[in-house]
Design brief:
Strand order of the largest sheet: 1-2
Protein name: Pre-mRNA-splicing factor SYF2
Helix content: 55-70%
GO cellular component, one term: catalytic step 2 spliceosome
Shape: extended
Function: Involved in pre-mRNA splicing.
Structural class: mainly alpha
Order of helices and strands: HHHHHHHHEEHH
Pfam families: SYF2 (PF08231)
InterPro entries: mRNA_splic_SYF2
Strand content: under 5%
Radius of gyration: 67 Å
Length: 352
């Protein structure tokens, strides 16, 4: 009997443990009341346990076992604890943060009071430096403006006159230095010239003598002088001229359209030659442009030489000299509107 009771007790304890584990694993939890009693289903095994003994054991186990809270209740309690701890930490951090801010404000106020004087001094020094730099830049800009204005105002003639005066001053200084040392200034000056300089100077003098106007001689001489002046600026292309001469010496077009070889003398025609220029002797575009530019240049020069006449040939002469002409014009501006009728009557012969 005792062996049976021991086996039944172990089985009942195992059954209780299995029930407890199943209750933990199950998704739905059932709250156990202390007054309720669990009834075990009868087992169909060979070793049956009597019902009164199992009921007593289950009552004893229920009395010793306390009801455990559900998972939902545990999570709610944990959340409440966490909220309380977080609120406490926030309050502590706010207190700790407020105290350094107050200290920092005090430190900043003290630093501002100490650094205000130094900042003012630095700003004043910087302002003074900037003011001096501004004044200096204004002076330099004004100086550059005056220099640029004087440079643009100075014309080419003034610059040439300035260079000539500078050269004369240098020459006078060299002459005084030569006289102080008892040396011939002309000899020293001539020794500085080269052969090329002397040749250019002699050619310049000869051209000046040729351009000199010796008075009217005849029209042929004037035409020759004009022609020489016009061709003075023309620079012939000798290589192209020789090429044309070689081509003309080898081929020459006849009247029937055939080509025949002729001598080189056909290219160099004289004044008594009867041959006339053909289509192959037409000038190129560069030569035509050069001729047009030369004609425009001659027109511009003639326009500069023409003067406005001092009087009109068709106008009525009422003066004996230029002074009398200006006086008559002044009188006309003042009294012509009154004397126009009298003057017309004198001209018609009907004046009283």
């Amino acid at each position: 009997m005792a062996g049976k009771r021991s086996r039944t007790s172990t089985k009942s304890s195992n059954a209780i443990l299995e029930m407890d584990q199943n209750s933990k694993k199950a998704p739905v939890h059932v709250q156990v009341n202390q007054q309720s009693t669990t009834q075990l289903e009868p087992s169909n095994t060979a070793d049956e346990v009597d019902q009164p003994y199992l009921a007593k054991k289950s009552k004893a186990a229920d009395k010793t076992k306390k009801p455990s809270p559900t998972k939902h209740n545990r999570t709610n309690k944990n959340n409440l604890c966490l909220d309380e701890t977080v609120s406490l930490l926030d309050n502590q951090q706010a207190d700790s943060a407020s105290s350094p801010m107050v200290q920092n404000d005090d430190a900043l106020q003290s630093n501002d009071t100490q650094g205000s004087s130094s900042n003012k001094a630095d700003m004043l020094s910087r302002f003074s430096k900037l003011k001096s730099m501004r004044i200096e830049s204004q002076k330099l800009n004004r100086k550059e403006v005056h220099f640029e204005f004087s440079r643009h105002k100075q014309t080419s003639k003034e610059s040439m006159a300035h260079e000539r005066k500078l050269k004369e001053a240098q020459e006078l200084q060299a002459k005084t230095a030569a006289e102080a040392t008892n040396t011939d200034y002309d000899r020293v000056k001539n020794l500085t010239y080269t052969i090329d300089d002397v040749e250019r100077w002699e050619e310049k003098l000869s051209q000046k003598e040729a351009r000199k106007d010796h008075g009217f001689s005849d029209y042929a001489q004037i035409a020759a002088k004009k022609y020489s002046k016009m061709i003075a600026d023309i620079k012939p292309d000798l290589t192209k001229y020789r090429q044309q001469a070689n081509i003309a010496s080898m081929t020459h077009g006849s009247s029937d359209g055939t080509q025949e070889i002729v001598s080189e003398d056909a290219f160099y025609r004289s004044a008594h030659s009867l041959s006339y220029a053909n289509h192959s002797a037409a000038p190129d575009e560069l030569a035509v442009d050069r001729l047009v530019k030369d004609i425009e240049k001659q027109r511009a020069q003639r326009g500069q030489f023409s003067r406005r006449r001092a009087f009109d040939d068709e106008d009525e002469v009422t003066y004996i000299n230029e002074r009398n002409m200006r006086f008559n014009k002044k009188i006309s501006r003042a009294y012509d509107k009154y004397t126009a009728d009298i003057k017309a009557n004198f001209e018609r012969g009907t004046a009283l």
